[in-house]
Amino acid sequence: MGLTREDGHAFCAGLLGGTPTANTGWYFWHTAAGNPLLIKLLMDDALASGKLHLRNGLWVMDIASVPAGYQLQSVVREQLRGLSAVALRTLNLVALSEPVAAEIVSKQMGTEALAELFERHLLQETLDGTALLRLINPVYGELFANWCHEPRAAC
Hints:
Elements: H1 5-16, H2 22-31, H3 36-49, E1 52-55, E2 58-61, H4 70-80, H5 85-97, E3 100-101, H6 102-109, H7 111-119, E4 123-125, E5 132-135, H8 138-148
Helix pairs in contact: 1-2, 1-3, 3-4, 5-7, 5-8, 6-7
């Protein structure tokens, strides 16, 4: 499980050595789904791009779209490394159609591919009884979709 919103804000403050605005802390926590590693990588990218800066003693994030940087892409690529071809296609299907019924994905792609993605913590199923699948974090879908549109992509 990831950090709570409050813990995420405190984590951001610790990394920055100062207080982020509430919106800034929320942005990083929400975008990374509470994952500390992703929070740090997103912050590093935002600092490097000038989107995160100190203003009047507070860290402020320019909430305009911040493209995912190389470090974040490397983390995601590492998590995808070694997935079977059918699991990658299944991940692509979920990324492009989420939320999508688990039953449909299972019939189209097979239960083994779903099990592989759940084992790697790349998918989550809704807890409200509707059995809908989503990516564990929207960052993965954005990066995966971008890779699939690159020339010679293996999606």
